[in-house]
Amino acid sequence: MIIKRIYMENLFSHRKTEISFDRGLTAIVGPNGAGKSSIIEAIFLALFDSGSQISHEILRTGRSKRGIVRIGANGALIILEFEVGGKLYRVRREYDADGGSLLHTLSEVIGDSERVLARGVSDVTKYISKILGAEDPRIFTSTIFSRQDMLSQILEMPPSERKSKILSLLGLKDLEEARDLARETANKAERILGELSSYEANLKRLREALARDREERQRLASVLEAEVRKVSELETRRDEIVSRLGVLERILEISREIETLERAERDVKDLENEIREVDARLGLLKSAGLDLEAVRKLSTAYRSSYECIKREEQLRKKIKFYEESIDRIRLEIYSEGIKRDLESLGID
Q1: Which residues are CB-neighbours of 166 under 8 A, at least 6 positions away?
Q2: N or C end of the chain: which has fewer CB within 10 A?
Q3: What is the pTM of this model?
């Protein structure tokens, strides 16, 4: 906000006073009681009216509501022009002899004309607050206006109290607390970020360890799968060997029976030799005219030999049966690939 011009008529000690504030700095000088402070008070009165919070702060010097009108005058007038955002505004406030409000308007000055924006005490004050972006008029008392001796009191305060007072006057105490809270939050966030970074590093290590474990599990799974295949193959091989072992046991059993038959065959051959001898002896006896009893005994011996011959024929048939069985089993063994097992056992 830039104050451009103020006009005061019968306001405070001013009969008719007009001040234009040009570019640069403006200094208002004069002895005590000359009306310097009343100019500043008039600016705030024009902005926020005597009924506002700001005016109560300003007028705590002892002036009454009636005191804003110059003694002996029938009323007072104040006009203030100020610029905000490149726009020129004009506020006009009129009071009666008792300080009561009469006419209050706020206009935007456009060239030589005016556009009324608000009328009435309350509406004008609210609109000005909206333009200035300050809902609390105390901000202006803190930043622009200082009552007599107030500045010296602030300067004499201890640093901590002075800081708190200035922040309070500027309406920045909450902002200072918010800044402290923001600083604390930032420190906490930084600490959390540090912890998060540590957690991320730990998480990275855990993920790498997990990846290694996964690879190791895959490798072990492959090894286990290969071992399972080997076990399955060995079990199949074992079943084959067990099956072949049964065949081999049958062969061994038949071999033992063959050995028995071979022994019986040898016995038969011995009997055949005996029969031939008996036949020879019978022939000799017959040619020599041997008695009948001797011939009968020889005949009995002959019949015994004949029974042995019949037994021999039965044994020969049994031997032939076993030999055929052995040949059949051997054929099965060779067809199933057991020959190498037999060779390893020394069986032809």
Answers
A1: 142, 154, 172
A2: C
A3: 0.43
Q: Centre a 10 Å sphere on the Cβ of residue 293 and count the other Cβ atoms it contains.
A: 8
Please give the helix or strand (H or E) that residue 187 lies within, else none: helix 173-288
C-alpha span between 113 and 115 (Å, rounded): 7
Binned at pLDDT 50, 70 and 90, residue 105 comes out as very high
Q: What is the mean pLDDT of residues 235-259?
A: 78
Q: Which CATH number fits domain 2-171: 3.30.1440.10, 3.30.300.30, 1.10.287.130, 3.40.50.300?
A: 3.40.50.300
| 124/117 Cα distance (integer angstroms) | 8
For residue 202, give both structure tokens: 């730990």
pLDDT tens profile 299-317: 565 556 556 666 667 777 7
Q: Residue type for 143, please?
A: T
For the chain, which residues make up each domain, given as ranges?
A: 2-171, 242-345
Separation between Cα atoms, residue 11 and residue 68, nearest integer Å = 6
